Amino acid sequence: MAAGVPSVITRTGIALDLARDRENAIVVPYGDSEAIYRGIRDVLEEHELRATIIRNGRRDAQGFTARAMIDGLESIYESALRKTSLTATTEERYAAHG
C-alpha cells in the first residue's frame, strides 16, 4: 500500500485490521482463486478504482510505521503487566535474570 501498488489480498491476518474492500485494497476470500483473478482484473481494468485504492492505500499505510508498531506492542505489554499486577520495572526484571 505504502508503495502505491494496488493490493489484492485475502481476508486473513493483518488484512482484517487495515484493508477495506474497494477503498484501499481488493479483499477476497482466502483460497478463492476465482475471486483473486476477478480482483486483479478489476484493478487492471477499472482506472478509477485503481486510483482510489492507490490514493487511500498510501494514506492508510502512513500509520503503520515501525515506530507505531513498536509503540503499539509496548502498550499491549504494559497493559498486560498492569492486569497481572506485576510491578517490577523492566530494569528490575532484567537484573533478576541476569
What does the model show?
By secondary structure, this protein is mainly alpha-helical. The chain has a two-stranded parallel ribbon. It contains five helices and two strands; from the N terminus they run βαβαααα. The protein has two domains: 1-63, no CATH class; 65-98, no CATH class.
Summarize the structure.
This protein is mainly alpha-helical and 98 residues long. It has helices at 15-18, 33-45, 47-61, 66-83, 90-96, and strands spanning 8-10, 26-28.
Q: What would you call the shape?
A: elongated
Please bin the fraction of helical residues.
Answer: 55-70%
- Rg on CA atoms, Å: 20 Å
**Total strands:** 2
Low-confidence stretches: none
Number of domains: 2
Write down the overall mean pLDDT: 86
Q: What does the largest sheet look like?
A: 2 strands, parallel
Number of helices: 5
Strand content: 5-15%
* Helix/strand order, N-terminal first: EHEHHHH
Strand order of the largest sheet: 1-2
The end-to-end distance, rounded to whole angstroms, is: 42 Å
Structural class: mainly alpha
List the helices and strands and how they pair.
Elements: E1 8-10, H1 15-18, E2 26-28, H2 33-45, H3 47-61, H4 66-83, H5 90-96
